[in-house]
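All the exercises in this workshop are built on plain-text protein records. A record pairs a protein's sequence with a compact description of its fold. Backbone structure tokens are a discrete shorthand for how the chain folds in space. Once this layout is familiar, the rest of the handout is easier to follow. As an example, a complete record with its sequence and its structure tokens follows.
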Amino acid sequence: MAALRPYESREFRRVTGPTLRPGGFALTERALEVCELKTGMTVLDVGCGMGASVNRLSSGHGLKSLGVDASFSLLRDSPEQNPSVMLINGRAEALPFRDHAFDGVFCECVLSLLPDPLGALNEFCQVLKSGGRLVITDIYARLPEGALTLRPLGLNCCLKGIRSRGKMMEEIERAGLQLLFWEDHSRLLKHLAAQIVFAYGSMKAFWAVFAPECRTAVLDGAIAEAEPGYCLLVAQKC
């Protein structure tokens, strides 16, 4: 039996809020400072969840925003939407949009969840206009040699696809994108861990719900070997 997905759990959503990721909107706003996306530009939020960022980009910044997510349950649970935005069902590795359609693509705490991150990056590049910006926030392994220790554990969260910074940069370049900006925000990951402990009582109790087949000692050891961090990066379509 596959482990439960935390982001599809209402209990977990009470910890993260509607954004379903560390830091909420903080890195979305930081990315907008870096990208200088102008009012009226078109942006796509891949892995939009319940549409929190799509509404933020539209209502708060005047961007023509659209969201896509593979989870029917998250799209179903989305609150009343701004009528100027649309959320649709679709996969990051097979985006249902024409080429060169967007000035910006946001992928916040999603890439590490995907079975084919390079395929998704190729899709992002395809739908971006020339010079368009890609915004990624995600988990990464600060100890690269430990990245592979988490993958065989049957997790169904971002840790299963954790990669080193070097591996992420390699995939971005292979997809035809150029890194413009990288910023570490690992403190947000620590803050989320503290919130989880407060809500569930301990990390052991949290993993008992979302990774019941993993022994806590093994999981804790694998996490320590990878030393997860959290980052914001911005890339440009070459």
Notes: Strands lie at 42-46, 64-69, 86-89, 102-108, 128-141, 177-184, 228-237.
